Amino acid sequence: MIMGIHKIVTASFLLAAMWATAEAQSKSTEEPNAAQPPAPISDCVQANELYNNEGQPRYRAGEEVLPLSQFFPAGAVVELVWKRSYDAVGERIFARFGDARMNVRAVVLSAQTIPADHALVKSNTVTGTATVVSIRIPSTETFFWNRRNIFLYACGRTAPGKSGDASTISIVARLTSSNSVSWVISLAAAAFFYGMIAMVSFRRMAEPRARVSMNYLDPVFISAGSDGRGSLSKLQILFFSTIVALLLTYFVARYGTLTSISDTLVWLMGISGGGATLAKATENIRGTLDPENRIWLESRGWVPDAESAKGKAKWRDVVAPDGEIDMFRYQNLVFSIIVGVALVIAGAGQLSSFEIPSSVLQMLGVSQAVYVAGKVVQPNAVADLNLATTATREAEATLRRAFHEKKLKAESLQQDLLAARSEVSAEYQNYMIEARKLEVVMKRSLKLSQLDPAMLRPVLAVDEGR
Asked: How far apart are CA 170 and CA 148, in angstroms?
């Protein structure tokens, strides 16, 4: 009984195996190529087939090709608009780069139908069936803009696994730019522009024959405010403008065209420019020293003259204008440097797509707002200085008139002061009271620990001062 059951089970397994084998053979017979992908289309044009021995093209001229740049950047990607449709299934686009005597294969990265919102379609330059082809130009470094051709053609499939010949070849010629030379040009241009603005700052010096110093290349000196101190907002404008100018010049030297700038980069430069404008407007609203008072203070050495103060801008003015570190200024400076470095690393090709996180933009905007608000809420020392200086000037003028009305004469400055104290003591005491008040205001306004006592001395001679 057991032997019979064993034979039945064995027979069942054999029948099942035979049925599975027959089913698999049947499917393979019905679908012989179902799992086999189509063979790739190979290049149907060789380098020595473009021209004949007489230098004439072997193929008919194809449809027009429109490069989206004026130069072919060696080692970089260039986009071409080909005025023909493209069958992604039945054909493959190839490209060669060089001239009639020597040309090499250029890698075609992508080929697709031109978008309907493309500028060339909107301007009716091409139809909606045109093809956008992205090609990587071979890295043939050249220190001069040599003229080279791109040969563009399509190879079709005439039979399974076999590529047909190209019927036409389209040719477009442009100058080829070098990466290294483009960087040299952009760096030289940036240095030229920076040197020009540094020279303008140097020309603002009071002494026309002042010696040129490396201090005049200091960005803090170049971007100093009207008070001669370092300005964070102006420094940011100089920093970002220099970087963007450098990258734009590189892009022009590399591609021969301008590129757009991303919206977030425009916002970044707008925040810096807006901060500088609002800070300047705040200073103007809160007032400046009257011209008469400034001349009087400068003539006595109480404050540096407006031009010589320019060369005294320091880096500490940017983050510690009042001697104490302003953390919002520090934060603004650090994030500006980080964004600038990221922009340089991204390169000129990313100017149109460079994105700054919204949180970083908001932080920079808040820092600028706090910077301007700090100028609004700080005590109006200029108004107090104007009042104190005017009172001291008037007291000195009264003392001088009284001194000369008595026709006092002395052989030295010390004798002048002794005569003033004894003969016109009331006017002298009134002047000294006002001068002491001005000294207090000056110390508070300019953050000075002390002033030279000789500065408080009145000017009694008419030709010594006003």
From this structure: 14
Q: Smallest Cα–Cα separation from 171: which of 151, 191, 185?
A: 151
Instruction: Indicate the DSSP class of residue 135.
Output: E
Domain residue ranges in the chain: 47-177, 182-377, 381-464
Largest distance between two CA atoms of the chain: 157
State the SS3 of 171-203.
EEEEEEECHHHHHHHHHHHHHHHHHHHHHHHHH
Q: Which two tokens stand for residue 459?
A: 């000017």
Region 6-31 average pLDDT? 46
The tokens for 175 are 């100058």
Within a 13 Å sphere around the CA of 54, how many CA atoms are in the beta-carbon half?
3
Angle at 204 between CA 340 and CA 371, to 5 degrees: 40
Specify the residue for token string 């990258």.
247
Euclidean distance between CA atoms 148 and 141, whole angstroms: 12
DSSP 102-137: -EEEEEEEEEEEPPTT-HHHHTTSS-TT-EEEEEEP
Three-state secondary structure call for residue 34: coil
The size of the chain, in residues, is: 466
- Other C-beta atoms lying within 10 Å of the C-beta of residue 216: 19
* DSSP code of residue 257: S
At 87, list the tokens: 């069958």
Q: Please give the structure tokens belonging to residue 45.
A: 């044009």
Whether 127 contacts 121, CB under 8 Å: yes
Phi, psi of 60 (to 5 degrees): -70, 150
The tokens for 4 are 């019979």
CA 456 → CA 13, 133, 383, distances in Å? 121, 79, 21
Q: Considering the domain 47-177 in this protein, what is its CATH number?
A: 2.60.40.2550
Per-residue model confidence as pLDDT tens digits over 438-450: 777 777 666 555 5
3-state helix, strand, coil in the chain (%, to 5): 50, 15, 35
CA distance 350 to 247: 10
pLDDT at 465: 45
Range with top average pLDDT, 90-99, 201-210, 405-414, 447-456: 90-99
Which residue type does 363 have? M
Q: Lowest mean pLDDT: which of 212-226, 235-249, 279-293, 342-356?
A: 279-293
Distance CA 259, CA 349 (A): 8
Contacts for 361 with CB less than 8 Å, ≥ 6 apart = 264, 267, 268, 271
Alpha carbon separation from 325 to 132, 226, 317, 328 (Å, rounded): 55, 21, 9, 9
Measured in degrees and rounded to the nearest 5, phi and psi for residue 422 equal -90, -40
Report how far residue 314's alpha carbon sits from residue 321's, in angstroms, rounded to the nearest whole number: 9
pTM of the model: 0.67
E-state strands within 2-85: 60-61, 65-67, 71-73, 77-82
What is the residue type of 440? Answer: V
